Amino acid sequence: MENNVHTTDSAQETKPNIAAEVKEFYKEDFKNIFFTFFKNPINGIYSILQRPSEKSYNHSLILYGSVFVLYFIGLQLLAGDKKEFLELSHFLKISLIPVILMFVISCLSFGVKSISGNPTFKNELLTGGLSGIPLGMIIPIMLIFKIFGSDELFEKLMRSPEKLGIFISLFFFYIILMLINIFQQSLRSAKTNMTLTWYIPPVAILLAFYITYKLSESLLF
Prior knowledge:
- This protein has helices at 2-39, 43-50, 56-79, 88-116, 121-148, 151-159, 166-189, 194-219.
- By secondary structure, it is mainly α.
């Protein structure tokens, strides 16, 4: 009986700790990571990945979870009244896609680094976690576009992605460049061969998108 009470107390203590850790992360660590990410996109990312803190693993998991929640809520806001015609499972499945992409990026980074060293997979989750920052930008930009653009134009663009305006096209291209940069700095932080550091990241990110597409197609739909 005492063991059951002790177990229950431990479970109750864990939940507040998780909430407190997430709150602390966004209050302190995320702000520093975010500003470093944009103010110093090369050396800043390099230093974060080269000297991961003791909390980097937890930070990675928080970033993974945050991207999922952001997409889940954001997609419902984007759907507007049409979300009544969509099942909740559809939003859940689509929200998992960027998380899968982040995880695939971590796996590819781990694989490349394994060629010339002995990386720790837990640390490589941070590469995917940081990739969540540019991926997370997509939802706020689309929401802004929906709010300040006409509904007719927004729906037309969503039905025909190939007809996206030049701004949106450049924005997504910019997101890909940011992902390539994160992957490159991740390889640099592990002292990977400079030739690999230069040529592998673009291929790896394109491969990550392809693998994510295949996994999402088979696992989610």
